[in-house]
Amino acid sequence: MSILILVRHGQSQWNLENRFTGWVDVPLSAQGERDAATSGRALAGRRFDIAFTSRLKRAQETLTIILKTMKHAKVPIEYDSALNERHYGDLQGLDKAETAAKFGEQQVKLWRRSYGTRPPNGESIEDCERRTTPFFVQYILPLVAAGKNVIVAAHGNSMRPMFKLLDHLDPDTTATLEVGLCLPYIYTFEGERMVKKEVLAVPDIVATGTADIHAKGR
Which residues are catalytic? Predict the structure, then answer.
């Protein structure tokens, strides 16, 4: 038996400010730091053989805080841009509510929650899948199949392709899937076969950013 845990980063400063973030390397908010520690306490007692995260500091900080809180800080960590959030192109840094007022809510919804539609000069969820899934299949799943316990701290749009593969989701369901901040998604494997999925309840965390209060999804 082995465990794969997927965790989206905690609330970032731009989640709090309701801005499109993408590849802009913003840190966690104070709330995000607290929630990462809370998530770490919820995972107390588990042990990992290896960890993976993106090249963006909000995911790295989340992973570091979780492992430190678990007193498990010596886990080897692999960093790769394949796990980065999708690039939001010209929308990066813009206020989401103001963007919806300028371009219309339906257009912004299409950019955010369509599987194949790219924002101007950015990536679609499908584009993100093209880089995330091969990395996941080549480097992460074989470790899990070999009996290793693995934790991955990433982003909503780099985790969606993983959920698509693991949970056998269609593209439209993948694109509209809500991914909670700092919530551990726990998959139990017997060899290559996934036998159980659990979303660990973590009381008192902010599982959605300010953006999700105004418009579902990110």
Answer: 9, 85
Does 72 score more than 90 pLDDT?
yes
Secondary structure (H, E, C), 121-183: CCCCHHHHHHHHHHHHHHHHHHHHHCCCCEEEEECHHHHHHHHHHHHCCCHHHHHHCCCCECC
Structural domain harbouring 78 = 2-214
Instruction: Look at residue 65 in the predicted model and tell me its pLDDT.
Output: 98
| CATH number of the domain within which 112 lies | 3.40.50.1240
Contacts for 210 with CB less than 8 Å, ≥ 6 apart: 15, 16, 17, 18
CB 59 within 8 A of CB 25: no
**What letter would DSSP give residue 211?**
H
The predicted model scores a pTM of: 0.93
